[in-house]
Amino acid sequence: MTFTRKAIAAIGCLLAAGALAACGEATVGTGTTASKPGATPDPPSAKSDPPGGAVKDPASTPATARDPASTPATAGNPSGVAKEVADPLEADSYPAPASVKHASAATPAKAGEAIVAAGAPSNAEIRSELKRMQAVERSARQTQHLALTPVPGGESIGGNGTIPIPAGVPEVVQKVIAGANEIADFPYVYGGGHASFVDNAYDCSGSVSYALAAGGLLSAPETSGQLESWGAPGPGRYITVYANAGHTYMYVDGILYDTAGRSGVYASRWQVQPTDNAGYVVRHWPGL
Questions:
Q1: Whole domain around residue 273: which residue ranges?
Q2: Domain count of the chain?
Q3: What is the pLDDT of residues 25-55, one digit of tens each?
Q4: pTM strictly above 0.90
Q5: H/E stretch holding 252
Q6: What gap in Å lies between CA 248 and CA 242, rounded to an integer?
């Protein structure tokens, strides 16, 4: 049988079309079935990796996701954002008048560098070991003295408003104390420290956020309502945060750090007496 060029071309087109149709139903070597013409694409798998194959940093995962046992403060809130209310203890925090000006704080990371006993002493430090031990003993005596001597008019510790950094606690705790010391005598302004860690006044949650960030336990300021979901439930050995929708404070190595109960505008946030913890969610960082 003799075919014209046009007939041969037509037969080739039909054969090619049939091959393409067969390919549309075949399984690709990667294990993915190609979509048929006009078919609706399958939805992405819930177990698929994020775009680009990037794996999220666990530290960036919200506290409620990291801690399945925790009860989110946003339960029943469709927006998923903790509802913040005015600090009911603002009047007890010596809010600074508009005329008060204060220099801005250093970054929490910078403040956290002001620690002692950051690790095992080097050979060059061994000679001064005895001197450091004596300094630790003096610090312990000073802490005990501060706990017994509040500034008149409130519960703030005396001296320069800071507490000695103990040597026998984890480095993270030392850094949190150093961060808390950095802004211990800063004025209280509602909303202070919310937009940025670096500010010239801090409210209750701004104060706690700054200190926790100095220890690497927060990457951004959180409100008191958000701190209800920070870390894990229950008290910690070294750091315990108490929070509700309106106020927050913490105990670090047994000493209260709170804006309410201070003795003046520039008095310390470190308090000499514990406070009533009723009505607060109790949180700690795992292992601390």
A1: 88-94+102-284
A2: 1
A3: 444 344 444 444 444 445 444 444 444 444 4
A4: no
A5: strand 248-252
A6: 5
